[in-house]
From TrEMBL:
InterPro entries: DUF465 (IPR007420), DUF465_sf (IPR038444)
Region annotated Disordered, chain positions: 1-41
Pfam family, one: DUF465
Gene3D superfamilies membership: 6.10.280.50
Name of the featured protein: DUF465 domain-containing protein
Length: 57
């Protein structure tokens, strides 16, 4: 898999996690622990994407 393809895959996962977070936040009984875990996963994906983009250029 090329770096560009990996970046696209991670970007898709990042967007999907963002949608999941938004859905969770709209729930009246949103679980703060679950939200924190989702946000941490999203941040790790963003950091990996940034790292790969730096290596690609």
């Amino acid at each position: 898999m090329t770096i560009e393809a990996r970046i696209r895959e991670l970007g898709n996962r990042h967007r999907s996690l963002d949608e999941t977070i938004q859905q969770e936040m709209r729930r009246p009984t949103a679980d703060p622990t679950h939200l924190r875990e989702l946000k941490q996963r999203k941040l790790r994906l963003k950091e990996e994407i940034t790292s790969l983009e730096t290596r690609a250029h």
